Write the structure tokens for this entry.
Amino acid sequence: MTRIVLDIPNNTDVELLLPLLRRLGIIISNQTHELNESEIAYHKNVIEKGGKNIADFGSFMQDFELSRQDKPMPFRD
């Protein structure tokens, strides 16, 4: 098997190439595109928001560990 990686700068060229590759039975993997400025800003905003703001992490972990304990089951406990 031969593997070829193509960097195609024009999206219209990709749209022309994909049907040909499918017709030839060539497997297409990892089709990606670069993010534009608005997509980058959106992802940065999501990252900056982060998760919950937990001031008392110790009590959070205690509650979390209690919620993750196995429930009593017959013939086991």
Summary: The CA atoms of residues 58 and 64 lie 10 Å apart.
